[in-house]
Amino acid sequence: MLTGWVIPDDIVDMTASAKLGAEASRDAVHGRLLEAAREAGFDPDQRGGQVEVARACGIPQAQMHRYITNKAGMSPETLVRVAIGLQVRPGWLAFGEPPMKLSTSVEPGTDPAHLLELALSSIRNERR
How far apart are the first and last CA of the chain? Predict the structure, then answer.
């Protein structure tokens, strides 16, 4: 055990604020997840609806249940996978950036890394 160490109050406050910010972000993503699921025709409040959402997103049902009940946050890759499955923009699901819907339909199960590479390739080509 360390003795004689004192953590300044401003560091404690910053840590608490960062944690609160992360929780607020997770809460916001959770709200948008529920909205997107309902918009896609699923009922996330029912177990059957959660199973359907999980299947559409290519995520295990138990994990989707944790997202839908806000007991876990999503990794960026999972967030992209969920966005694709629900046909919403990852930027909208993550940050609420409009528009909500994808401009073109993307096949559920599409590898998020592949989509990211396509997007980066498109950006590189526009800059030439």
Answer: 58
Q: What are phi and psi for residue 88, nearest 5 degrees?
A: -120, 160
Tell me what percent of the residues of the chain surpass a pLDDT of 70. Answer: 62
Q: Cβ distance 87 to 105 under 8 Å?
A: yes
pLDDT band, residue 49 (cuts 50/70/90): very high
More confident residue, 90 or 49: 49
Query: Which domains does the chain carry?
Result: 16-127 (1.10.260)
Containing H/E element for 28? helix 9-39
Tell me how far apart the alpha carbons of residues 79 and 94 are, in angstroms, rounded to a whole number. 7
